[in-house]
């Protein structure tokens, strides 16, 4: 009796001290977690990696390598996909600005597609593939979400939005020649990576100013690469036409649907001219001979007035005329009517950084002949066949005096 009575207060004390130690360790743990991972970050981490409802084990292979966003997280981040958060709406669906719990800004693209055409497994496999393609001149796909009828892609947000806003949109940002040259070179490098250096060959199909995003330092990043993989072949092709981007489309793709890297190279040529002139490739409000940019550029070249193509604001600011002219000649090369005469992106990059011989005699680009364009029965196909090959071209030479 005496022994058990003396043991009782001792074990009570032991129990009390033990609980105190455990409590202390718990508080310490919570403090460390709170200090090093902010609560928002923790929540975002949990919701990002949450399995999509009904995920089978086979799918979890993909989920180990990509971030899966909970639909609720994206709803919250975009203020319930509020119209104030709408960044724009392209051929593949609307894009919303969002802010995650940890403060990271994202661009959420709600794909407008028929889910029956691609199962979850295929969707996640494509997302995984695109996520694996990374380059400093490509927009990063952070992850995705598939919820009910919705499929969403989550991209990093680019602070300076897309190039179209600056070239002919509402933005009043001015880009000097140095920045424009860096943008042209960056796009060329991004395309070179997609065409030649990444582990899978990707033809972008929709190179245009709105698909060039600019980061906080105005470094360009190509967006929307690989998007066509989520759509059936014919639909992806149509989306480009509906988005009104035919002015960028290479003749062989527009007419015969022949798709190769060379179609992107043609679009790149159109984009370079847009960047230098600061205007849209097609503008029917302009006097008739100026309406189609590649055609107008060539006319000016023939008259030795190519300098008139250059954005007057940029001229005022000061340009390196020789560099600008060289860049326009490179664009002419990209715009060749015959796909095999357009140089690959690696050569274009080399020309832009002057690692290979400069272009001395630009050759006539592909564009519709005005007389023929009025006659609807004559297609671009027929007109491109009439174009002189650069080998027999009577192009004026560089020795012509420039203004
Ligand atoms: N990652 C991003 N960061 C910032 N803004 C973006 C981002 N992605 C898209 N946007 C903005 O959203 C707009 C709409 O993009 P979206 O890709 O849907 O349309 P588009 O580029 O005009 O056409 P397409 O569907 O043919 O690509 C863009 O013009 C751009 O301003
Ligand atoms: Mg786009």
From TrEMBL:
SUPFAM superfamilies referenced in this protein's UniProt entry, alphabetically = Protein kinase-like (PK-like)
InterPro entries found in the cross-reference section: CR_Ser/Thr_kinase, Kinase-like_dom_sf, Prot_kinase_dom, Ser-Thr/Tyr_kinase_cat_dom, Ser/Thr_kinase_AS
Q: Where is the Protein kinase domain?
A: 81-378
The UniProt regions of compositional bias labelled Low complexity, in chain numbering, are: 388-403
> Basic and acidic residues: which segments have biased composition?
370-379
Q: State the UniProt keywords alphabetically.
A: ATP-binding, Kinase, Membrane, Nucleotide-binding, Transferase, Transmembrane, Transmembrane helix
List the SMART domains hit by this protein, alphabetically: S_TKc
- Extract the Pfam families matched here: PK_Tyr_Ser-Thr
Transmembrane ranges, per UniProt, are 12-34
Asked whether the UniProt record includes Nucleotide-binding among its keywords, one would answer yes
Q: Where is this region: Disordered?
A: 370-403
| Designated name of the protein | Protein kinase domain-containing protein
Q: What is the organism of origin for this protein? A: Datura stramonium (Jimsonweed)
